[in-house]
Write a structure and sequence with these properties.
300 residues, alpha+beta, Arc Repressor Mutant, subunit A, 2 domains, five-stranded mixed beta sheet, five-stranded antiparallel beta sheet, elongated
Length: 300
């Protein structure tokens, strides 16, 4: 049975490291000041952004293992588990962690916005690999937040800190976007694999048991989270993964209708529960109904 440490508050983690906080809801940790540290496998109820400057650690995160190298950022959100079980080993770490409790965001613009930063849901093999410039930018922001936390608390401090956290998140998003673009050639390969996966789905008649293919199913086949897979397809094609699947399905529908199959027959063969579900998707994708398509085809 794994020993998992519950991180309900910022202080649950910082106390374990021997770090003293000056704010109950947010903490910036410079690992050089608390090393050596013992490992911990953590169940988070807070947000955390971690990056180490010199590290070679085999960390668990989500449902996988990750080889945590220099220049890697890992982002965790409430409800996630990450870290490495305490085995008594002490390690020297350099790098930073920014921890903040969801309560800090109450009533601020970030309370809703934070859901849009999909990298909080990425699995570990999708961690962000920073360039040296990106790393320096994040360190600079960590220092600024830490300096602000040293100031006497006043009515503006929380707003200023939330502003800094927003900056950190936006820079992380920019760095992820850069990572997607620099891997674009690699990503074009995934489209071929995506098409093969969809062909295989129908080739093995999986749709007759599970219905239409879903983004989650496809992401699982690539060992990616649905968010990361969706972002990857969007960056590569300009379209959503869900829409890519729908276009594929409707293309198959068009081929079958053109070959003389009935609408009900095509709907059943493609994995739709009811023919009207096919008609609705067909109209949305092509601008005409399957009936109109068949008529055009007959008279074309």
């Amino acid at each position: 049975m794994s020993k998992i440490m519950k991180i309900k508050n910022v202080s649950d983690y910082t106390r374990y490291l021997g770090h003293t906080d000056s704010h109950p809801l947010v903490s910036v940790i410079d690992y050089t000041e608390v090393s050596p540290v013992r490992h911990s496998l953590n169940n988070y109820s807070i947000y955390g952004i971690f990056f180490h400057e010199e590290a070679d650690i085999d960390l668990a995160y989500g449902c996988g293992k990750y080889d945590y190298k220099k220049g890697t950022v890992i982002c965790v959100a409430p409800g996630q588990i990450g870290g490495k079980e305490d085995n008594g080993e002490e390690v020297m770490l350099t790098g930073w962690a920014l921890l903040f409790h969801p309560d800090l965001l109450h009533g601020t613009y970030l309370q809703k916005e934070i859901k849009n930063y999909s990298f909080f849901d990425y699995r570990v093999n999708e961690a962000l690999h920073m360039t040296d410039e990106e790393h320096d930018m994040l360190v600079s922001l960590m220092r600024q937040i830490r300096d602000e936390l040293k100031n006497r608390h006043d009515e503006l401090q929380d707003a200023i800190i939330v502003g800094y956290i927003g900056l950190v998140l936006n820079f992380c998003q920019r760095f992820y976007n850069r990572q997607f673009l620099t891997r674009k050639l690699e990503n074009s390969d995934i489209l071929m694999k995506f098409d093969s996966l969809l062909q295989d789905y129908y080739g093995t008649n999986r749709q007759l048991i599970d219905g239409l293919p879903t983004v989650q199913y496809c992401a699982d086949q690539f060992c990616m989270s649905a968010n990361y897979f969706g972002d990857l397809i969007k960056k590569t094609t300009g379209d959503t993964a869900g829409n890519y699947i729908r276009q594929y399905v409707i293309q198959r529908a068009q081929n079958a209708l053109a070959a003389g199959a009935s609408i009900a027959q095509v709907a059943g063969e493609l994995g739709f529960e009811y023919p009207q579900h096919l008609s609705r998707m067909f109209k949305k994708q092509t601008g005409i109904t399957p009936t109109e398509y068949c008529e055009r085809f007959r008279h074309g």
